[in-house]
Design goal:
By secondary structure, this protein is mostly helical. It has helices spanning 2-22, 36-42, 50-67, 82-85, 89-103, 112-117, 125-135, 146-166, 170-186, 190-205, 237-261, 309-328, 336-358, 362-365, 373-394, 409-425, 429-432, 437-455, 469-480, 484-498, 509-513, 519-529, 536-539.
């Protein structure tokens, strides 16, 4: 072994001598095309530890020396690191096409021409890892195999996490947003909320929620702040729009993530001082921006941009936040004043929702001639808010003399579920591919509320499954081909259906019908009951959303009836 080491040292010494004497590389000579040296430099991970970078630097130095050898030495080319961590350029380009076709419609982060033009730039390699993570699930070719694809995705997830721990920039946060989309698609749990916490923190650190207005200085200015007031002055209009779109994407993910976990949203609407995103065709054009008014009443029309559905979706997400705050608000059910105040807030929000929808422009309210993912998400989110509110109003989880079930809420909830079912019926499989895990969550909420109504006696016949349940489950099964969370939603529903004829009722029905529980809490408790259906990783997770179930003593059928002796809605 010592002889081998000595021989290697002699060879490297000879290589250095030959390279020096021949003067193969002239640093003053401009390169006419991409070289192996530049490819090697591009492949260095930004997040690599110092020791790893040192070893890679030494490897690249050796590579430079070997590349400078004359042909007669016949030393083969060394593979670049990009081949080890990322797929080939051909596969990456195909993944980018899949991203813009299937994910961009509801995560419109990037400027398409600029993104494609700078696809393989050294400083943007972390974005390629993000594309690998979210787009490989839509791969249509037999090669690479599923095992190889999974390995690429695993490596890219790790690369994004390692990079974003040490770096906080626009590009790294864009990659982290793509990783958050992937995590939400996996389903609620510790990994998802940890990645979302990183994403929210990064958005605050780089000041995404505050837009730059060249017309004048800010009205309210903090005496101490981390942001540089001149930070955005050197950004191009395309980069400014990318920052804006990144924030609104994070804003949307935060709303759905918080609702699915039963917690407050991390981004305070009152802290947002930003313009709405521009339309794709207006990107980089001198168009007067419209500012988001978080503290004012939600508008039903946008004067400058009636056709930009994203504006209406942003406004609706503010209503989703308000409804979520109402439902998770702690309440003393033994005090009539508290219950009456909560009911008044419920009615005001219900009226605001109806007014907002009725005043929408016709092109937003009515179904477009061609499928539009953003239009579908607007209507799905609107029905989601109604279903969550009416389900709680129809079946309060805590019994109180002062907060009784509403007699009209079941019918309103049933109509909202029917609307979601109709949305799914109108969607083709390839159109469902353009709707992400947030749409799967809407379908899950609709299906669960329908089962609650069904098992509590609202449906006429218990023996037959409600007509609208099958299209909802069919949509979940189709979505589960791309997003694992949809499979978990479907498994929980299927557990109730498979055990509906058991003596004493379906397995775990009391837990399922407890409207205080989120999907994360249901996964933890029904995972053991469902056996192989729910992954074991969730059955042992800590559920900080658990609540006492001592008051759930009523039978599982016939709940709607004698208690409906008052109407407050």
């Amino acid at each position: 072994m010592e002889k081998i080491s000595q021989s290697l040292q002699d060879v490297l010494g000879h290589v250095q001598a030959v390279g020096t004497s021949l003067h193969i590389a002239d640093p003053d000579t401009p390169e006419t095309g991409p070289s192996k040296v530049s490819n090697s430099a591009q492949s260095w991970p930004a997040s690599a530890p110092a020791s790893q970078q040192l070893s890679e630097g030494a490897s690249v130095t050796s590579t430079l020396q070997i590349e400078q050898l004359p042909p007669f030495l016949n030393i083969p080319d060394l593979p670049t690191a990009i081949n080890d961590r990322l797929p080939s350029e051909e596969i990456l380009q195909e993944l980018v096409e899949l991203f813009f076709e299937l994910i961009y419609p509801w995560v419109p982060l990037f400027h398409k021409p600029s993104f494609r033009a700078n696809l393989f730039s050294p400083g943007r390699q972390i974005l390629l890892h993000g594309i690998v993570v979210v787009a490989f699930r839509f791969w249509r070719q037999p090669a690479p195999s599923a095992e190889v694809r999974d390995n690429y995705v695993k490596i890219s997830r790790e690369q994004i996490l390692l990079s974003t721990i040490d770096t906080c920039s626009l590009i790294s946060t864009q990659a982290l947003a793509l990783l958050a989309v992937d995590a939400i698609g996996q389903g609620p749990g510790p990994r998802t909320w940890n990645i979302m916490a990183m994403l929210i923190t990064a958005s605050k650190q780089i000041g995404l929620a505050k837009g730059f207005s060249p017309a004048g200085t800010e009205t309210n200015t903090a005496l101490v702040r981390n942001e540089d007031p001149d930070e955005n002055l050197d950004l191009s209009s395309i980069e400014v729009e990318e920052k804006r779109r990144l924030f609104w994407t994070i804003y949307s993910l935060d709303r759905f993530f918080s609702v699915s976990h039963g917690q407050s949203c991390s981004i305070d609407t009152k802290s947002i001082n930003l313009q709405y995103p521009a339309r794709d065709e207006d990107w980089g054009q001198p168009v007067a921006p419209e500012w988001f008014q978080g503290t004012a009443a939600i508008r039903s029309t946008h004067v400058r941009c009636l056709a930009n559905l994203w504006h209406y979706n942003i406004d609706l997400l503010a209503l989703l936040d308000r409804s979520n705050q109402l439902l998770i608000q702690p309440l003393n059910f033994s005090l009539p004043a508290h219950c009456q105040e909560w009911q008044s807030s419920f009615r005001r929000l219900d009226i605001a929702m109806s007014t907002w929808f009725e005043n929408l422009p016709r092109e937003v309210r009515e179904r477009p001639a061609n499928f539009d993912p953003m239009w579908t998400m607007i209507h799905a989110t609107f029905h989601l808010i109604r279903i969550r509110m009416y389900t709680v109003a129809a079946s309060p989880s805590t019994k109180s003399l002062y907060l009784r079930p509403s007699s009209s809420a079941p019918a309103r909830c049933r109509q909202a579920v029917r609307d979601v079912a109709y949305l799914t019926i109108c969607l083709q499989p390839h159109e469902l591919d353009q709707l992400g895990p947030t749409f799967a969550f809407v379908v899950w909420v609709a299906a669960r509320s329908l089962v609650i109504l069904w098992t509590k006696g609202y449906e006429s016949t218990y023996g037959s499954i409600p007509a609208d349940l099958e299209p909802l489950l069919s949509a979940l099964r189709q979505l589960s081909l791309r997003w694992p969370c949809a499979q978990r939603y479907n498994d929980i529903i299927q557990l109730i259906l498979d055990t509906k004829n058991n003596p004493g009722g379906p397995t775990g029905l009391e837990i399922f019908n407890d409207t205080r529980r989120t999907v994360y809490g249901l996964q933890n408790h029904l995972g053991l009951l469902a056996g192989h259906r729910i992954p074991e990783m969730y059955s042992h997770s800590l559920d900080f959303l658990d609540m006492d179930l001592d008051d759930l003593t009523s039978p599982w059928t016939g709940t709607f009836g004698s208690e409906m002796d008052s109407e407050w809605l």
